[in-house]
Amino acid sequence: MDPFFGGFNIMFSLFPIMFFMVFGLIIFTIAKGIKQNMYNNKQPIIPVQAKVVAKRYDVSHHHNGTNDNMHHSSSTTYYVTFEMTNSERMELQVPAGESGMLVEGDEGTLQFQGTRFISFTR
Questions:
Q1: pLDDT attached to residue 118
Q2: pLDDT higher than 80, residue 22
């Protein structure tokens, strides 16, 4: 058996498997997001007294294109940890504008729906 053509047999076998694994992962991620959104929509909007105890952000870097025409971009996701009066803590993803307006130590009324941040009023 020619090693050159033997390598092609392996490639032809592995490519469909890898394709379906990647495609399956994409479908799983989309389904998980839809499920979380549906869960949040069914929950009541809850107002509670809370304090901002921590802030953090996560930067994702994206590289698209070929070696000759490479496009770089990034996106930032902001998170704030709130502590309720019963000492329970909850970390919620917040919009960039809200994150910039919140300072650790701020106290006020947090409104959330499931795992979705609605608002924070001092």
A1: 96
A2: yes
Residues 34 and 50: their CA atoms lie apart, in Å, by: 28
Domain range summary for the chain, segments of one domain joined by +: 1-42, 44-121
- Are the beta carbons of 120 and 106 closer than 8 angstroms? yes
pTM: 0.76
Please give the class, per CATH, of domain 44-121: mainly beta
Q: What is the mean pLDDT of the chain?
A: 89
DSSP codes joined into one string, the chain:
--HHHHHHHHHHHHHHHHHHHHHHHHHHHHHHHHHHHHHHHHSPPEEEEEEEEEEEEEEEEEEEE-SSSEEEEEEEEEEEEEEETTS-EEEEEE-HHHHHH--TT-EEEEEEETTEEEEEE-
What's the CA gap between 4 and 7, in Å, rounded?
A: 5
Q: How many residues does the chain have?
A: 122
